[in-house]
Give the backbone structure.
Amino acid sequence: MRQPSGADVGWGITGTMLSGMIVWGGVGWLLDRWLETRVFTLVGVLLGLGVAIYLVVVKYGAVEPPAGGRPTSTTRGGQRSRPPEYRKTQKGRR
């Protein structure tokens, strides 16, 4: 099985976002027509957007680092650490 390209992932994310908003917005629109209100279309679009974002994060959220890249370490504060030669200060420079 081949790895999906960046365009494939982008179109997958776009399709998921649009379909969630269209489907749930449509359900809200139908509820608005049935109940003679004007609020459920917006609620449906926002609900569809929220569910679509959740699905995108679940499906595409775990991105693996590229193979062969140099490993980076982080300090306890979350900042990337540098090799010891970069920690030295020079006159007039921090």
The two ends are 50 Å apart (CA to CA). The mean pLDDT is 82. The first helix runs from residue 6 to 35.
